[in-house]
Each structure stands twice: as structure tokens, then as C-alpha cells.
Amino acid sequence: xxxxxxxxxxxLAVAVIGGCASDGGRPAASATRPAxxxxxxxxxxxQAGEQSGSQPGEQSSRPAGEQSSRPAGEQSGxxxxxxxxxxAATVTGAGCGGTPVLSGGGFLEVRGAGDGVELWxxxxxxxxxxxxxxxxxxxxxxxxxxGPLRQVRATLPDGTRAKLAWGxxxxxxxxxxxxxxxxxxxxxxxxxxxxxxxxxxDRGRGHAWLLVR
Length: 213
What we know:
By secondary structure, the protein is α+β, with helices and mostly antiparallel strands.
């Protein structure tokens, strides 16, 4: 029986050895499986994101329109108190008597003639110039010199006088960049013509001509 038993043992030994060799040569399933967070190339996901150009935090979290959050009215172009007025353009056909109407910085103004003083008038016209007769018009004046504004009157060459509806009212200040103290007045010009507006303080006199249609 020895010669029968030995071949059987040898066959079993060969089968066992062949099975071990087959298991040892097969790669483990986990050896080729990409780790969590790795791309198909085996690189970590963060590096793959860098190669695609989308780095974490690269997009700005600033709300849209933050750069334009300044109020719209903040850059209106209105001159501030004490500012130097820019050169003004003459409004054609709006002046008379050698007093042109000037337009600059959003203002319509006249520069009067003064005896040792400087005189400016700011026109608040309700429509296009020239001024209209029979309608009240607000005119703000700035005048250098000393003392209160004691006289304000408007006349035609024939002596006709305009109605001073109100004023002069002294103003504490404004953003109108002209020298001198400031007063507000309201006039009603009853007729068409070239009106002479005269102003006087304790020290200093001045006048300006206004065209009325």
C-alpha cells in the first residue's frame, strides 16, 4: 500500500502549492483603487483643482455693486462753500446794459459793477432766459463791503420801478462760491425792458442790469 499512498500525497502537495502561487500573484483589490479625494490620475483632489485654475477662495465674495455704493447725489458737481468758481460761459441774448448772464457750475448769474465792492446776482428763473415780466423771480445777491444791505431797487430808464415782493433776507451762507455777504430778494418786473437793479450797504454800492421780456 506504500506505493499507492505516496502518489496520492504528491498530488495533494502539488495542488496546494499551485493554489498558493495563484493567490500570491493576484494584486489586492485595494492596491489599484484610488484613495478617497484623489483624481483619476492619482493626484489629490486639491492639486487637480489647482491645475484647472479654480483655487479655493479665488472668487471674490464682494457683493455686486459694492464699488458703486456711493450715493448718486454725492458727485453732483455742485460747488461747495468756499470753492473757487470755474470760468463761466456767456448766455447769448440774456443780458443787457453791459451786464452779461453767465452760466457755470449749474448756476445762472450776473456780475454787477461796484464802487469799491464786488457784486454778484444769482438768478432763479422759472423758464429760459430772458426773465419774464409779471412773474416773481428770486434773485440772490452777494456783495462785499460793510454793514447791512440798506437799499435794493430796480428801475427802468424812465423811472418805472419794479415791485420788491420780499427781502432782502440775509443768509447765513450757501454753496454759491462768490465773495461777500448774501441776501435773497423777490422781484416782479411789470414791463419788458432793461432793468437796473441797485444795491447799497453802509460802505459800498453796486448795480446790475437785467433783461426782461
